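To make the argument concrete, we let one protein speak, a sequence paired with a row of structure tokens, as a model reads it:
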Amino acid sequence: MSEVVTGEAVVVEVRVAQLPSRALAVVVDWVLQWAVLIVAYVLVSHASVIADDALSTGLLILLTVLVLVGYPVISETVSRGRTLGKLALGLRVVSDDGGPERFRQALFRGLAGFVEFWTFMGAPALITSLLNRSGKRLGDVFAGTIVISERVPRQDPPPAMPPQLASWAAMLELSQLTGEVADTARGYLSRWHQLAPPTRDEMGTRIAARVAAQVAPPPPPGVPPHAYLAAVLAERRRRDEARLARARRPLPSYDRPVHAAVPRPYGGAPGPVAQGPARPAEQADPTPGGFLPPV
């Protein structure tokens, strides 16, 4: 996972495409381009019988440029960052801020890809991808893009907020909590039921100590590690969703008249009473202190 900052200054986690999947997508595109080139060369060679050599040479150069450079540029521009190879592997090219790839960026990637893959057989792309933390090749560095994977593996449901810790979690300072520590806590909660009690307690205490070193204030006395971690992760997720909702909220329109709300006349029928969410059936006995184990 990697973090990108959108144009609305919102930090969003994206799944960066791994090198093997990107290499396989390049191989698929290579096979397709070579097949088109071979067919084009055969047709031009047959057409050279009735055309002069200059016209045949010009057609070969034009077709070569269209296939090697035009194919990735046109495909990524039209399909918003995907060639047929990337489509088959579930990959997409996006801007560094998470926005869709633009024509200028696709052109930079296509020109750099011709040098990287067709001139030097992919060596510069491989070296740059291994050295860059986001797996970028030279074309991505020049264009300001990143390749992400859209096929996210199935994830466990996010931990629920323990009701006893909701008011305490609302006052947490989470700005120092890193994604690595949060992922470790999330993985521990997802395997909570599979661990033996001694291992579960030891791991929970150790991971809770790592989280507590980056989160303030400390939990109330007597809170078990799994409940503390669930409260921190649930509050972190709630704040991320609130930030995204604010960023996606449309700006108010000042050219529309504002109508005052008409109060309901006395004696009107009362509105429907809001019902709370259905209480899920308990799957396990609560731990000491009334805290339910993670689902």
Remarks:
- The two ends are 24 Å apart (CA to CA).
- Confidence is low (pLDDT under 50) at residues 5-11, 265-282.
- Residues 132 and 141 are 9 Å apart (CA to CA).
- Residues 19-47 form the longest helix (29 residues).
